[in-house]
Amino acid sequence: MRVGVLTGGGDCPGLNAVIRGIVRKGVQEHGYDFTGFRDGWRGPLEGDTVRLDIPAVRGILPRGGTILGSSRTNPFSSEGGVRRVQENLAAEGVDALIVIGGEDTLGVAARLHAEIGLKVVGVPKTIDNDLSATDYTFGFDTAVNIATEAIDRLHTTAESHMRVLVVEVMGRHAGWIALHSGLAGGANVILIPEHRFDLDQVCGWVESRFKIRYAPIVVVAEGAMPRDGDMVLKDGTLDSFGHVRLSGIGEWLAAQIEKRTGKEARTTVLGHVQRGGTPSAFDRWLATRFGLHAVDAVRDGDFGKMVALRATDVVRVPIGDATARIKTVDPALYAEAGVFFG
Amino acid sequence: MRVGVLTGGGDCPGLNAVIRGIVRKGVQEHGYDFTGFRDGWRGPLEGDTVRLDIPAVRGILPRGGTILGSSRTNPFSSEGGVRRVQENLAAEGVDALIVIGGEDTLGVAARLHAEIGLKVVGVPKTIDNDLSATDYTFGFDTAVNIATEAIDRLHTTAESHMRVLVVEVMGRHAGWIALHSGLAGGANVILIPEHRFDLDQVCGWVESRFKIRYAPIVVVAEGAMPRDGDMVLKDGTLDSFGHVRLSGIGEWLAAQIEKRTGKEARTTVLGHVQRGGTPSAFDRWLATRFGLHAVDAVRDGDFGKMVALRATDVVRVPIGDATARIKTVDPALYAEAGVFFG
Amino acid sequence: MRVGVLTGGGDCPGLNAVIRGIVRKGVQEHGYDFTGFRDGWRGPLEGDTVRLDIPAVRGILPRGGTILGSSRTNPFSSEGGVRRVQENLAAEGVDALIVIGGEDTLGVAARLHAEIGLKVVGVPKTIDNDLSATDYTFGFDTAVNIATEAIDRLHTTAESHMRVLVVEVMGRHAGWIALHSGLAGGANVILIPEHRFDLDQVCGWVESRFKIRYAPIVVVAEGAMPRDGDMVLKDGTLDSFGHVRLSGIGEWLAAQIEKRTGKEARTTVLGHVQRGGTPSAFDRWLATRFGLHAVDAVRDGDFGKMVALRATDVVRVPIGDATARIKTVDPALYAEAGVFFG
Amino acid sequence: MRVGVLTGGGDCPGLNAVIRGIVRKGVQEHGYDFTGFRDGWRGPLEGDTVRLDIPAVRGILPRGGTILGSSRTNPFSSEGGVRRVQENLAAEGVDALIVIGGEDTLGVAARLHAEIGLKVVGVPKTIDNDLSATDYTFGFDTAVNIATEAIDRLHTTAESHMRVLVVEVMGRHAGWIALHSGLAGGANVILIPEHRFDLDQVCGWVESRFKIRYAPIVVVAEGAMPRDGDMVLKDGTLDSFGHVRLSGIGEWLAAQIEKRTGKEARTTVLGHVQRGGTPSAFDRWLATRFGLHAVDAVRDGDFGKMVALRATDVVRVPIGDATARIKTVDPALYAEAGVFFG
């Protein structure tokens, strides 16, 4: 049995732990051979492979990133891409493929399974924790820890200078990182994409904080937006940036708060720091278990499935369940955090 | 409404986060007053209280330990203890009591609820994660992170000197910390109380590691024991210590490995470092939510219950469910980790 | 003897450790009383004081920020400011003043000492490490550790996606943080204010890195500038920002690298995260010793002096020596790092 | 030019950074070839070598331990050892040797330089910071940070349970780690090998701490001893251990404090955790610079010298200067810390 492995999409702490889990279990318990494909779906598309055996996975457990490389290449987007994937897998003698990725990467896997019967097993990956069908994805806990540590540090600066500090964290479509790190870091305002915020209310919370001689921390997900979204454009700040990826809602918000409350406001955009480096213990544990269970699924011939965490168990669900819609923050859960606002 | 709060048993990162969650929600949303009782059940027993209002919980979220203090005092063990607890609670005008603790502390709460109708709500606490009825307890994730970081550090020393390094972690009756940190840290042997180990097999794993020019890390829970438990006593090492609390199974094991394999072996006992200091983001999040939901239970008059984590939801269960038996590591889960041994 | 204490300028990990050292030694060894002045020179200017005794400094050693607050207020800038400072100090019965601050705050102290004979002792503070007359200032080591950890994390993202990652660190006039964290983090390019960089050379280094299949990390001090400084303005990116404080040279540089090399480039601006939170062990040790020695200077009546680190000794130098000119990175030291570029 | 490199003695965070600095500078600036010798002096003695070129040092900067391995082998202790070292170096075509080690390893280098004219350059290494002729050695700052973080964590446990916590840190002959981490961690007692302690005084400090409702942390270097050293033996605790390396003065001290003050006391022995894992930014910077300057010394033909840190400069001193006597804590410096005792 020869099993292919690829990692696609944005990198995420824990990818290497998954790969190690797969190879250790596959080789030692089932005598499988493995072929690593480079840079997500680009590997099978172009026949770009990398050795993947026990020595190759030695020492990679605590390291961030992925030894296989990653990309957002989609074989369905290139002429004859699907056929080339099939030919390259056949040329390598690959019987089954373990695909580690998010919505897009797994979406390709699901389609190849449905359309050409490709024997795939999926492993969910998104640092934003917004994949349905799994309680948590690896990488998320690491990101939340990094963001929380940053908030801890910003508290002292905020209080020493009595300034508003706005922290922009990841989360384009879902506010999980903002919600968890905001709660854990003792933020005074948490803004998420699922709930359009009212700028007056935000400024009210900020001012109430100053009234008791404390300086507020505002945590904002990169995808959060004010109730009147047009004001972001009308205000012009975002528009003239040119580099939306860095100078986003956090900076706009700090400027607005400063203008309306008269209090000095500063922004910190955590950016890529959140997704690199050594994974937390939880993420290493989850990623390792995902790897082990993906091999079990291959052994059982249970293809078209994805491993997923349900409470403390790793289970299998149809890949399509995970990619059908994203998992957003429930309004009731967000409301729960409201007691700490202001 | 006046609500009492106490924390009992061994300290645990996240206790202060629970207390803060309770007070912030209770005061701001329901207008409750709070009375803190000092040092677990000693507080109600002796009428020793401490102010517990919004200013008292400011800034405590990231701090380990408990501002209320803790003890293992049991009112049922002292003559007229139960009556004195009742009188002191009445004297303070306390209508309901939120009890944060482990098996013993919650056991007292359950009994007082059953026997004298005390209006109690429980919050589970054990750094060992061995309480039934909840998927996780706060403090556990912090302990696992600390142990994992220590294992990371020990790897480099082991490899530089080609030595065996034995790491003794907490876990008297359950091996959760050993299992999680051992998996996350890439240990080559993990020994837990639930499964008596075979010393020959352990030495075999150690030797197979050296054969590929790597130095092994052995993670052992403080409560782990060899198949022939008598040999620990016969060997005499433990017996002559006098201080079993520090010089336990880890040191015995290193001595045995050194004797049998001829490889230098060293022990590190992590001890109290695992339970102190700032909580991880997960533990702050979990502890905060436990605090918020405990207040909900008080508001609903749902006494005799304990908050618990089920997947990503906080639910309520009878306190007795949690204290009836400890939650141990399932043999199948332990077997899963076996692929990494040796 | 009553001694006043104030902290001025930007906050810096270790300020609280200095304050604690002063109070512990002053009270316990010399029986001094202390008066804390709030928010730098604003305190003496407006007579705003805060209690400063043993209980007030309990537990503050590991905390970032300053319990006294800070500001950039300058009594020489306000009509009758100097006279009001004198009056307020007299009203409080303050015999001597310990001033903890950077170039500006200490400059005021030096002038008040020279002009009105104010009995001042200075403690140097700058996170940028750019004060003459001392080998190191506290806060710097913490900032370098935070920046290094961020660079560690960014390496894995850079390599997984084969992207250029530009990290902008503090250092408006001196490149100490960039140089130290760049060396410690294994950066492939380090750019500092003391040395105008050649954009072509930077792009050459970036490309040579990709040739050996590695992704480069560029560390740039916020005050670094290209040889042709006008190009930053001509390019227009900086100009249209409006918020120079956040969207600075790092973002401009990433845009230029992307345009010229065709490689994807991303920027991370570490910002305020570098100056908050718990101080490193070195900074706590240095700050504590500065506090102890400042009290010694008061006891010796050695006013107009500042404590300073020389190798491993704390010595005293005239305050003016520290504020006369900033300490920049020596060209030879910068050249030493050049072996790692590209 | 072919240059040999070896690392001897106990491992230390930063060894790999030195090796990388040597190879990067030697290859890129001078076109040197390098030969790595395995396991300290065992390498040249037995002719055991390892490839040492640019790819071999890639990615090792942040890793603890040493890729060359280490040992305490001494060629002077084995019959014909010196001759064999000479023969093996000649066989490898090695023109000069860079020796990274402590007192013993460098002592061999100095003797070989003096007796047979071996062209050696030394790099000082000791985690204890007790080598003369250099202000700091790499690894020390990392150890102090780890010990300080542990003390931070133990504070919360101490206070929650009102217990004495004794922390045993490294330092057999010099108390640098104890002094720095004790000061940085806010310890209430610091005991070092240079100053025999009075047990009554220690118990007095412990009790005075409890009087103000605080729980004391006692930091003790492994080599610290009571004034009456015989009492340690008479008490019998140490004697019966068999494993002096782990169950040392810390445990004895906790038992004595508990007996005399009646307060519960616990010991944590940090052990090997202090010397493993990723180096701090300072240690990476210092180790890298030591590597670069060792190559400069080879280039200059300046043999028999060792690189050393003086303030912020790296200088060269005769190897003998460093190994003549150990650098201990000055009584005045220790006295300075005394204000925090009790």
Description:
- The structure is a homotetramer of 342-residue chains.
- Chain A has 342 residues and is α/β, with parallel strands linked by helices.
- Chain A has two domains: 2-139 and 279-323, Rossmann fold, CATH 3.40.50.450; 141-276, Phosphofructokinase domain (Rossmann fold, 3-Layer(aba) Sandwich).
- Chain A is 42% helix and 16% strand.
- Chain A contains twelve helices and eleven strands.
- In chain A, the strands form two sheets. Chain A has a seven-stranded mixed β-sheet, with helices on both faces. A four-stranded parallel β-sheet of chain A has the order 7-8-6-9, sandwiched between helices.
- In chain A, helix 1 (15-30) packs across helix 10 and helix 7 packs across helix 9.
- Chain A is elongated.
- The model of chain A is unreliable at 234-246 (pLDDT under 50).
- Chains B and D meet through helix 5 and strand 9 of B and helix 5 and strand 9 of D.
How would you sum up this structure in a few lines?
The first copy, chain A, is built from 12 helices and 11 strands. With 342 residues, the first copy, chain A, is of the alpha/beta class. Chains in contact: A-B, A-C, B-D, C-D.
List the helices and strands and how they pair.
The structure is a homotetramer of 342-residue chains.
Chain A: E1 2-7, H1 15-30, E2 33-37, H2 42-46, E3 49-51, H3 81-92, E4 96-101, H4 103-116, E5 120-124, H5 140-161, E6 164-169, H6 176-185, E7 189-191, H7 199-211, E8 217-221, H8 230-235, H9 249-261, E9 265-269, H10 281-299, E10 305-310, E11 313-318, H11 319-323, H12 331-337
